[in-house]
Amino acid sequence: MKMERLSQDKIRIFLTFDDLTERGIHKDDMWREIPKVHELFSEMMDQAYMELGFDATGPLAVEVLASPAQGMVVIVTRGRMNFSHADDAMDDEVEEVYELEVTMDETDQITYAFHDFEDLLRMAKVVNPLLIEGGTLYSYKNKWILVLDAVEMEDKRLQSIVAVLSEFGEAASVTQAVLEEYGKTVIESDAIKVLCSKF
């Protein structure tokens, strides 16, 4: 489990499928109201408080984005709580409350970020024989972001590709819509093939 602070009131948590398996949770369980998922969420909030100083009391908006090979990205946004203090006796007894608004989404895209162009090229040479076609390359916030579509890929090939991507880059949770809006499209299609033929 990896986490980072995005702003004062927002954090991002990366959960691998191993993180879920260790806790006896299947990917589909994240969509259900079961005690194990509540325990996992409490554990995530405790860790967020210890590592990032993120206080999760009050209303929270939780977005869960599942990816076929990368695991899950959980984005937690803290809202502002407005208590009306009509009853002073209640002030002392305000307990910690998780008021959750959960949004679930699933994507068939694999998104990886590379800090160094050389790492991107080395990855492309290794992954090229595994990939038939596809891939879009963006430049965003001083990183190279590669987006691959996993819809047509068989499981074994997908796992191999993700293993190579993980060796040279890191999983990214930025969506393609954000990349198209705020990033710069470097190679629109067949990015891996283009990188291998041009460099």
TrEMBL record:
Classification via Gene3D superfamilies: 3.30.70.1950
InterPro entries registered for this protein in UniProt: MecA_C_sf, Neg-reg_MecA
Transmembrane segments: none
UniProt record similarity statement: Belongs to the MecA family.
Designated name of the protein: Genetic competence negative regulator
Source organism of this protein record: Paenibacillus cremeus
